[in-house]
Amino acid sequence: MEKQKIDNIIVYTKRLKKHFDYSKQIYDENELIDLKVSLIDLAHTLRNWVDMKMDVQKFLEEYAPGTRFNSQDYTGSLKKLIRPYNYVIAPIPLGLTINHKTVDGKLDFMLPTDNFDYATGVQCKINKESSELSVRNFWFVYKHFDNSQMNIMFKGFILKKLNFLEWLGAEAVKIAKLNNSGVMERNSISRETLIKRVSNILGGSHPEGLEVKHTLDNEHVRYILEHSSFINRPLPYFILMKFASDLLDVFTPICEKLQQS
Predict the structure, then answer these.
(1) What are phi and psi of 243, to 5 degrees?
(2) What is the pLDDT of residues 92-123, one digit of tens each?
(3) What is the pLDDT of residue 118?
(4) Rounded distance, CA 3 to CA 8, Å?
């Protein structure tokens, strides 16, 4: 593999680490502007990984063959349970740990509308001593669930192992909502699409307000950016942070070894 392409991956690994570490430190609603800046920078940096995806796959085949990334599927029971309803489902395979200064406070959700009964969930664990919050799997389903149905949700996520290109193309978010005609539309957003559209919508590739507006992908990603959040962070914050964490877990040790050789 050409030295320049190897150097690019080393540089973008370090750049990703810088933006990931900064985004991990953004705490609360008093820092929402900082959160937006960090999310723009993180999305734009991840966009570089999408743009050089063929080089990244070739790099892994040469320096770390057999590398697999964590993705997910769903049980048949979960798919059957949520099918009739509006929902946003966002798995965080094996979880993500962030800092959260206000772990003693209420862990608030924000939802698109108050006109539905709903079941929300996030598998999370709080470490009050270190102010760390570990999150794993989000769901916003516009139907009240009983305990047995919530149990199906908790147990409905299946871990899958994929190569880099498969991982980028795999589903990151599952959405179903009524369109203007009252028809239920079900959509899937891949990791690659989510990275591109968050970067585009927030101004990572264009100033905000000048992004391409007419794509369905933009509409779906804007929907989850504006209407689904947890502890004052939009849902894509957690998803993109997980993408970055997974990439860093793989590429940091490889790049460090290459630099030492």
Answers:
(1) -55, -50
(2) 999 898 876 644 444 444 444 444 455 566 66
(3) 53
(4) 9
Cα(25)–Cα(129) distance, integer angstroms: 16
CA distances from 103 to 100, 130, 133, 189, 233 (A): 6, 10, 7, 30, 14
> Do 236 and 194 form a contact (C-beta atoms < 8 A)?
yes
**Cα of 236 vs its chain's centroid, Å:** 5
Residue with tokens 């800046």: 37
Q: Are 40 and 199 in contact (CB under 8 A)?
A: yes
What one-character-per-residue DSSP string does 190-237 give?
A: EHHHHHHHHHHHHTSSS-TTSS----HHHHHHHHHHHH-EETTEEHHH
* 145 half-sphere exposure, CB direction, 13 A CA radius: 21
B/e letters for 53-68, b = 16+ CB within 10 Å, e = fewer, are: bebbbbbbeebeeebe
Angle 224-144-179 from CA coordinates, rounded to 5°: 40
Rounded to the nearest angstrom, the gap between the alpha carbon of residue 246 and the centroid of all alpha carbons in its chain is: 11
The answer to whether residues 127 and 101 touch, using CB atoms and an 8 Å cutoff, is: no
Instruction: Check if the beta carbon of residue 122 is closer than 8 Å to that of residue 138.
Output: yes
The answer for residues whose C-beta is within 8 angstroms of residue 133's C-beta and 6 or more apart is 97, 98, 99, 100, 103, 124, 125, 126, 127, 231
DSSP 102: T
Instruction: Indicate the domain borders of the chain.
Output: 3-260
Cβ(51)–Cβ(249) below 8 Å: no
Q: How many residues does the chain have?
A: 261
- Has residue 65 got a pLDDT over 50? yes
Task: Return d(Cα 255, Cα 106) in angstroms, integer.
Answer: 40
**Beta strands 132-141; 233-234: pairing state:** unpaired
